Amino acid sequence: MILSRTSQYAIQTLIYIATQPRGEPVLARKAAERLGVPPAYLAKIMQVLSRGGILDSFRGPSGGFVLKAGAEKTNLMEIVNLIEGPGLVGTCVLGLKVCSDATACPMHAKWQPIKMNVLKLLQEQTLEKLAVAVASGLYRIADLPAQFVSGESENVVNVVTLNSAS
Amino acid sequence: MILSRTSQYAIQTLIYIATQPRGEPVLARKAAERLGVPPAYLAKIMQVLSRGGILDSFRGPSGGFVLKAGAEKTNLMEIVNLIEGPGLVGTCVLGLKVCSDATACPMHAKWQPIKMNVLKLLQEQTLEKLAVAVASGLYRIADLPAQFVSGESENVVNVVTLNSAS
DNA sequence: TCTATTTAGGATATTAGTATCTTTAAATCT
DNA sequence: AGATTTAAAGATACTAATATCCTAAATAGA
């Protein structure tokens, strides 16, 4: 609920792509299958990520999506801003149109530090870091682990690529 | 965005009612006017708060809504749970259906403490505390301060009631 | 050049959240 | 009893988020 479903899909997908070998475009269809999210919807989201400069896309056979050069350094805040616009950190907890240090809602003072922590966390988590965590096998980005997604048994995560990227 | 608009309206309204003298029922219409929120919608929300045991309601002339006995101790988490159901603290940031210490998304470990802080804050903020803060004049629960809402000049906040409640 | 594959883009459908309206029931006052 | 005031309840409308579908454009390979 803090992140929209669309943001969640976007983040999951980008982490997934970041765990895949560079130079081998990822198909929207494959990503959707791996993550268990609606394929047509994910395709739309990936379009946005391309237009937003995080992904590169290629059409036709052997096409698909790859991380744009340098995009491993993208942090989660940037992704959320691209998908949802600002607002996560910009708006008042209680919904006031104006709520600043000068004139505030009664939650303002205590909410501020929490908001800052959220911001900091989202900013320090990059695709690179998260992809390494997932590739280690200790964490997952989908409810089903890779082995149980049909047709994924061959596709083993390329940890080498990840390590060389950090 | 962390709280739904409905939750925000509910909280604003409850704080407003908590700043009003006990025993003088607050009209849905008046609360909506004071807070600048849609009257018909707010009426529905107040119905939920009544059914949820936070407000008492009375029909007919001199009717309206009052805080149920003891409801000044209600905290924001209880209100949000009533309006939105759990989920705020119950769900994974990245949207995984299962994400626990045992099997987690890559954000889990770092998100956990922030979630706890949010939970703690919402739990320690009671209507009573927030009403006192608002009654002090240092904080507001609506974009327009009370003096500028038409027909509100007579209705002065009853700070005595608040103090005796704490 | 033809066909197959894949993303791009636009149109449409579905669902949940937000909001309004109308009717009914309860209470008060005359 | 009748009129007025207020919340309760149900129906309906609007909007944004989520999701699907279809056609077009690009690319690769035969």
Protein described:
Two copies of one chain form a homodimer. With 166 residues, the first copy, chain A, is mainly alpha-helical. Helix content of chain A is 47%, strand content 5%. In chain A, strands 1-2 form a two-stranded antiparallel sheet. In chain A, a hairpin with a 5-residue loop joins strand 1 (55-58) and strand 2. Chain A binds chain B through residues 1-3, 5, 8-9, 11-12, 15, 76, 84, 87-88, 91, 93-98, 103-108, 110-111, 114, 117-118, 121, 125, 130, 133-134, 139-143, and chain B through 1-3, 5, 8-9, 11-12, 15, 76, 84, 87-88, 91, 93-98, 103-108, 110-111, 114, 117-118, 121, 125, 130, 133-134, 139-143. The structure holds a DNA duplex (30 and 30 nucleotides).
What is this structure's SSE topology?
2 copies of one chain form a homodimer.
Chain A: H1 5-19, H2 28-35, H3 39-51, E1 55-58, E2 64-67, H4 76-84, H5 108-124, H6 127-135, H7 159-165
Chain A binds a DNA duplex (30 and 30 nucleotides) through residues 4-6, 25, 27-29, 38-41, 43-44, 46-47, 50, 57-65.
**Series of secondary-structure elements of chain A, N-terminal to C-terminal:** HHHEEHHHH
Q: Most extensive interface: pair and counts?
A: A-B, 41 and 41 residues
The helix tally of chain A amounts to 7
**Euclidean distance between termini CA atoms of chain A:** 31 Å
Mean pLDDT of chain A: 89
**Shape descriptor of chain A:** elongated
User: Total number of β-strand segments of chain A?
Assistant: 2
Keywords:
homodimer, 166 residues, mainly alpha, 7 helices, DNA-binding
